[in-house]
UniProtKB/TrEMBL annotation:
Pfam families, alphabetized: DNA_pol3_delta2, DNA_pol3_gamma3, DNAX_ATPase_lid
A GO molecular function held by the record: DNA binding
Source organism of this protein record: Archangium gephyra
Organism placement in taxonomy: Bacteria, Pseudomonadati, Myxococcota, Myxococcia, Myxococcales
The entry's keywords: ATP-binding, DNA replication, DNA-directed DNA polymerase, Metal-binding, Nucleotide-binding, Nucleotidyltransferase, Transferase, Zinc
UniProt GO cellular component terms: DNA polymerase III complex
Subunit details: DNA polymerase III contains a core (composed of alpha, epsilon and theta chains) that associates with a tau subunit. This core dimerizes to form the POLIII' complex. PolIII' associates with the gamma complex (composed of gamma, delta, delta', psi and chi chains) and with the beta chain to form the complete DNA polymerase III complex.
Family recorded in the similarity comment: Belongs to the DnaX/STICHEL family.
Function according to Swiss-Prot or TrEMBL: DNA polymerase III is a complex, multichain enzyme responsible for most of the replicative synthesis in bacteria. This DNA polymerase also exhibits 3' to 5' exonuclease activity.
Recorded coiled-coil stretches: none
Name assigned to this protein: DNA polymerase III subunit gamma/tau
Domain AAA+ ATPase as annotated: residue spans: 37-179
Highest rank taxon of the organism: Bacteria
GO biological process: DNA-templated DNA replication
NCBIfam families found in the cross-reference section: dnaX_nterm, PRK05563.1
């Protein structure tokens, strides 16, 4: 049997199993139940968050032999054909490569005819913002007077590029980036189903790299499995992703908080020798310090962290001083740009970290107060000097 990529294998087959888009799903389910399905939908949102999946599910919901229903059976001819992309009544069109007026004219011509055996003729146009102006104009004519048996579902990552005339004739749904916590949970489920022994900490590296897109996350998991097999260590996963092992990032954060210059320099040297991108390191470190700060402020580690990382973050938060962590974050975060452009990135990173050691936590609060006082003095001074001009 040929291998099916995870993103495809675990593509949701029901509205209820779509991760992170509950607000959209609820509205569409209700519309189907109340028989108030619009004739044109626009699904807008970032890549890989489920727009096309939702479009196919909606097509199934409308054409299922047991429907229209918000829970299409998945087994009838219509459901199966839509899943396999062989339905003659459901056309999936890539707007990027079919963006000309002649393509839309073909759709219009075709839309006149009744569906063959299904309830509706459904046109799913992906990346619809790529259509030419002339194509949009042609499409508009159909949207203005749609035949009753036709439904349009448009998907786009760039809704702002659509003409208002099109937007105003669609029911728009905004898809969100999937939260890190929801993605981590889903990846853990899938890893278990696939018998991959990968730690939560390693999966959270994948979550961070995929920026809220489930499809990208699953592609990365595929990549990890093919590079490292079914039992990868955190270091293996980091290497496969070109990421930096979280335990190293945490060790650096600990060394910063504890003012341990030697450990900092040893880690920097080692990462540099391994060819790690130091800008990436600074970014990851800034993120990690942010997590520590959140833990300090709320008393709990952010939910997006894996269980195993949470304890470490909370422990470090307990040992550190909020003002110190805040200032460490400032120093590291503002160095990212510098490190990326430095002729000698290692030097820039080392100096950033060493500067971080010399932030005095005890002095931080009084210093802040002094700064605030100075600012308020400056402000009142400003008023007094400007007063004569106003008078
Ligand atoms: Zn069905």
């Amino acid at each position: 049997m040929s291998y099916t990529v995870l993103a495809r294998k675990y593509r949701p087959q029901a509205f209820e199993s779509m991760t992170g888009q509950e607000h959209v799903v609820r509205t569409i389910e209700n519309a189907i139940k109340l028989d108030r399905v619009a004739h044109a939908y626009l699904f807008a949102g970032p890549r890989g968050v489920g727009k096309t999946t939702a479009a196919r599910l909606l097509a199934r919901a409308l054409n299922c032999e047991k429907g229209p229903t918000s829970t299409p059976c998945g087994e009838c001819k219509a459901c199966r054909e839509i899943r396999d992309g062989t339905s003659t009544d459901v056309a999936e069109i890539d707007g990027a490569s079919n963006n000309g007026v002649e393509n839309v004219r073909e759709i219009r011509e075709n839309a006149k005819y009744l569906p063959q055996g299904s309830r509706f003729k459904i046109y799913i146009i992906d990346e619809v913002h790529m259509l030419s102006q002339a194509a949009f104009n042609a499409l508009l004519k159909t949207l203005e007077e749609p035949p009753g048996h036709v439904k349009f579902i448009f998907a786009t990552t760039e809704a702002h590029k659509l003409p208002d005339t099109i937007l105003s004739r669609c029911q728009r749904h905004n898809f969100r980036r999937i939260s890190a916590a929801a993605m981590l949970k889903r990846l853990q489920e899938i890893a278990a189903l696939e018998h991959v022994k990968v730690s939560g900490s390693a999966l959270s590296m994948i979550v961070r790299q995929s920026e809220g897109g489930m499809r990208d996350a699953l592609s990365l998991l595929d990549q990890v499995i093919s590079a490292c097999g079914l039992d990868p260590s955190d270091a293996d996963v980091a290497e496969a992703l070109g990421a930096i092992d979280r335990t190293v990032i945490h060790a650096i954060a600990v060394a910063l908080v504890k003012r341990d210059a030697k450990t900092l320099l040893v880690h920097t040297e080692e990462l540099w020798n391994r060819g790690v991108d130091l800008r990436r390191l600074a970014e990851d470190l800034a993120h990690h310090l942010r997590h520590v700060f959140v833990a300090k402020a709320t008393g709990a580690a952010p939910e997006e962290l894996a269980e195993s990382d949470r304890d470490a973050v909370v422990a470090l938060a307990r040992e550190s001083d909020a003002a110190q962590v805040a200032r460490l974050f400032d120093v590291v975060h503002s160095s990212v740009w510098e490190i990326a452009r430095a002729p000698q990135p290692k030097l820039a990173l080392e100096m950033t970290l060493l500067k971080g050691l010399h932030l005095a936590p005890a002095a931080a609060l009084p210093e802040l107060i002094a700064r605030v006082e100075k600012m308020s003095q400056g402000a009142s001074g400003g008023r007094s000097t400007s007063a004569p001009f106003r008078a």
